[in-house]
Predict the 3D structure of the following.
Amino acid sequence: MQNAPDNITFSKLISPVSPEKSWQLESFLLKIFEFGNYSFRRALQSQLSPELQCTFFIAQHNDTIIAAAGVMYDIENPAVALFGPVCADPQYRNLGLGRKLCQLLLDHLQTVNVEAVYLGVNPDNPAMHLYQKIGFEKRAGIVLRKLFVDEQSFNKRYSQRNRQISIQPLKWHHFPEVSAMLCEPADMYTFDFSKGLYSTRYAEPHRFLPVFPEMMSAVEKKGRSL
């Protein structure tokens, strides 16, 4: 591992943030990833939902973002969070910045009483070893999970078939909870709402974050609540 420059600074962005700062961060992310399903800029400005908390820790060198790691959770029910993206500018990789930012995020999540963090990552992703070192374990398909509480008690609260059922309109702040739910085996699971297709046979997820935005896009396009 290389030595990091001395003048790297770390800071936290928690929604809502200014349009200028959200544009700066999304511009950095788009240099590394492609986001065609939803916008981190909109999430950071609380435009998707004021109840969907979007938090990033960033590393900067000479006021330029060189690495970032983010998370989203429902303010009203922060028990489940979505982790990622985690990325660094190619010029600043292998400096330990990713691990530093991830740890800052995990420490933050514990202060807001998050119980489980979900992350989607392909097995051949070079970052897999980092996620395993900080406590993520395979849940299903490409989905990893890290628990801050006892697994048995968490599963009892969120995975039992006989738990109380509530029905409410699908909203953007349900992003973390629904994405986590879609990792669990179910009688009707594989689907493409935009095309009206579904299957009654469970298949381990090979995509993660894009599924919920596709559902919301279909709902918003048709003007209905799911």
